[in-house]
Records
---
Amino acid sequence: MVAAPELSSTNLVLDRPDTFQVHTRAYMDADVFAAEMGRIFGRTWVYVGHESQVPAVGDYRTTTIGRQPVIISRHEDDQIYVLLNRCRHRGSVVCREELGHSNFFRCPYHNWSYANDGALVGMAQASGYPGDFDKGEWGLRRAPRVAVYRGLIFASLAADGPSFGDYFAPVQKYVDWWLNRSPAGTITVLPTAHKYPYPGNWKWQAENGHDGYHGNYVHESWQRLLERAGEAPVRDIRKYRTGGCTRGFAFGHGLLERPGGLNPNASWTGRMMVRFPEYAEALRATYGDDEIEQISARRNIFVFPNLYLFDTQIRVINPIAVDSTEVHLYVYGLDGVPDALNQGRYRAHERFYGPSGFGSPDDVEIFVCNQTGLQASGVDWVLLSRGMHRERVGGDGEVVGHSTDEVPVRAMYREWERLMSA
Amino acid sequence: MTMAVKHELTRAAAEEFIYREVRLLDTLELEEWLALFTDDGLYWLPIEDGDLADAADAVSIVYDDAERRAERVYRTLHTPVLDQSPRSRTVHMVGNVEVAGADERGDMRVLCSQFIGELRPGGQGQVGLNRTRVLAARAEYRLRATPDGWRMSMKKLLLLDADQPLYNLTFVI
Ligand code: FES
Ligand SMILES: [Fe+2]
């Protein structure tokens, strides 16, 4: 684990009953970033991929946990293994592909070979090691803890800490509703992803995904397009955007929620139920009206520290450096729905998201605007107190706020502060 | 007397078409650019090379039919769009042009390579602005003879880094 510099919560997060502020250094200081890699990404449960991306025995994908290279691998026992991509001999990565299929991982340096569960199966010119050399001791290190929830794979680089169940509990029912838009209850991630980098801190994206305050300004162009397309006048879109709520949870999770319901004007899922009666039938066969009301509500669900679940995509935030981030949007199909429904989702995704979409790039502009603005260090704090005077406690003990309030961001920074100072 | 539409496409004619097409992008004459497409034309930037027929079940960087293209141009020219404020300046360079025969619809396939320089100018010290990027792409055009001359039934650009993280590609490439 990276040794943390002198950080204390009172330095970087100012959390008082009447105000909530985060210090510039949280976004700009390379030492803070190094501490985040150890104290946050080195300890918490981090999302690493989806089971449908490694469907067959021998399939693998490489990714990172913070900056650390890992392999997500499906071994012949059909289990998912999260392996540190570092040869136990002298440290080379053993896999350089983004994804593929192989019966083993072979180190390019001196040819040590590892099975898909990381076990060391052979060394080149093995007579250079004594006969009692214990191969069992020298397999690829596994992430100490791995959890799979309905296909979503999480790993923790720490052997100890909150259990996955405890960590995930606050958002579990929302994730269930998100998945239950598929009558089969499952999704299949497409093989290719939208990816965009930006020269700014990773937390700009984490803060923005459940920010319900910026839409009328950052996405005014998008709202005008919807008006032009005859989908809704800008005035109605803005009225609709004041509905719903924000929620902030323990462990840094949060979400932005739009009202659901069977009214096709309010909910995309509701619209799809009208357009594809077989889809409506399949949902109604399993769920009652109350449940469908929840399933059809549109939510951007943030699972701290690196995962967003959106309508069309699994969004993964990859921190590269204090001022460098890559965001991957893994678009998925809902299983058990008409092809045309998924195709409509893909087209809707392309229209708004990705490097050439009509929405995401506007958000990215803000991340670099923030990164430039924070060069002005005469002002030390950003203000995240919106709605503190009107937030309330929800049914599960979560904090609930107006849809434009900064409730989920405060939840994130309370957890951030707790981890960075402990 | 009605004239039969001529189907022969010389390399010189293909070059003339493409040079004009990319010049309209460099000079931001995007409504004129729209008119170069057939009504069923597609403007396509895949993430992974493949058949157009498979694009419906995949996600592309750009997969624009006529309506989506019109939106793209409308947002660029007529809405307060942050990701094109400031606007991109571009310079297109086209080379290695080959006429590669007709496709199954009788449209002529034209292959070429493109380098595209792009810059968004801004104030001093603005992160993300003031740097020139160079994009490289293999391009495929499908040109259809129409009474108004050649029109694109497809413009496909396979970026060298199509499967890599891509920063702001909101200008028409
Ligand atoms: S570093 Fe991998 S075999 Fe030597
Ligand atoms: Fe946004």
---
Amino acid sequence: MAIDFGYSVSQPRAVDLDRNDLSLAREIVREMPEFSACIACGGCTATCTAGNLTSFNFRLVQTLVRRGEYAGAYAEMNKCMLCGKCRLVCPRGINTRGVVRLIKRKLGDY
Amino acid sequence: MKKVVVVGGGVAGMQTALSLKERGVEPVIVERTGALGGKLRNFHLLFPSMTPAAEVLKSFTDQVASSGIEVRLNEEFSDFSTDAPIVIASGFNVFDARLKEEYGYGIYDNVYTTVDVERMFNEGKVGLKDGSVPRRIAFVHCVGSRDEKVDQRHCSKVCCITGVKQAMELASLWPDAEIFNFYMDIRMFGPGYEELYQQAQQEAGINFIRGRVSEASPTIDGRIQIKAEDTLIGRPMKMTVDMLVLIVGMRGTDGGKFYRPRDLFGGSVLSDRPNVFYAGAATAPKTVGESIAEGVMAAEKVVQYLNDGN
Ligand SMILES: Cc1cc2nc3c(=O)[nH]c(=O)nc-3n(C[C@H](O)[C@H](O)[C@H](O)COP(=O)(O)OP(=O)(O)OC[C@H]3O[C@@H](n4cnc5c(N)ncnc54)[C@H](O)[C@@H]3O)c2cc1C
Ligand code: SF4
Ligand code: SF4
Ligand code: SF4
């Protein structure tokens, strides 16, 4: 019988850009080039209706997508209720609500 | 009357000498190297307008030549305690990237500085050591700036825009290459700089990752692995690149420090001594335009000093 010593193997936490497949991220950016002009100010997340009530962080999720970390992105974006407030504050004029919809369309399998 | 000595024949020194001459004061430029021009001699295109450095320089050296200003080349000025009027326009030294050993400059192949990239563009041979085209390139911001470990606490100011400019130049040279800039803050202080940054993100497809690269190490196939934290995500990040460009900062020329002007307002070209003046990057990191402007100001202050009966 296997004995449980209470240890487990930790998975590496690093974002490994040698392994991540950035082609989907590139495809998304190609459809909406303005998306890559994000300066990570966090204005979108600050104003986000969903983000004030749940753990949803639009800035973080879209950054993860651009790094090829797609797992869970679709489920996260489902927390968005498409109210569009984020778009009103974005200093780079990004159609942030459009980014939510684009990511959901492209990353349905993740 | 004795000539006013201008120490250094970079853009700041040349402009100082030209402005003195225009005001009827005879200058002499003392330049340590064998030619006028300072750092610009090795640069290719200048931000933000991509004007050839050679073009800017030529307009200055032509004017210096035609105005008959005395130039003493291959002469290092050291008589800084003189009572005669002098203008210190000795500029800056490029940070020696070997001091940041963890980035492997001079140890691994294909690790360059931004100064090397300018030179390679001028020589018309940009690329990897074996002549091939890199697929992945990373730029490291703040190498030898904002770093107590190398006694360089200041921000070198012009290097963010230099890194963005060079990333865009490489992107247009090699459209298939992936380019990543690792930064702590992006400091785009000048006219048109922020716009260039946005263009780099949106049109040139440069990836900006917030995090300081901690180390670079060679891989078995001769590439370079780098590590950083992607601080926007809060997780460590690693990747392998073919070419690493270190965005080197500026070191002062007063025993490794910048000269301290009397104050940073009306006295920015004055020192604590009445006969010693400053112009250009000798007192702080500055752009070419800012350095030239100080040349005019320094000349004006020298003339006032001489008119006051000195
Ligand atoms: C990688 C890089 C890229 C850059 N690109 C740009 C750009 O695109 N656009 C821009 O606006 N700015 C750019 N800059 C900034 C630019 O280099 C400076 O603004 C400019 O060189 C300052 O001119 P200067 O005359 O003050 O100093 P320098 O160019 O450093 O000239 C100083 C001169 O003094 C001489 N000297 C020093 N000590 C002595 C001595 N004791 N006796 C005699 N001679 C001496 C030196 O040999 C040198 O010729 C860049 C800087 C770096 C590091
Ligand atoms: S559109 Fe979505 S992401 Fe934007 S503020 Fe509304 S809920 Fe948040
Ligand atoms: S508001 Fe715009 S620039 Fe700011 S983090 Fe959100 S998407 Fe990026
Ligand atoms: S200008 Fe940018 S790269 Fe240069 S020291 Fe300042 S923050 Fe760092």
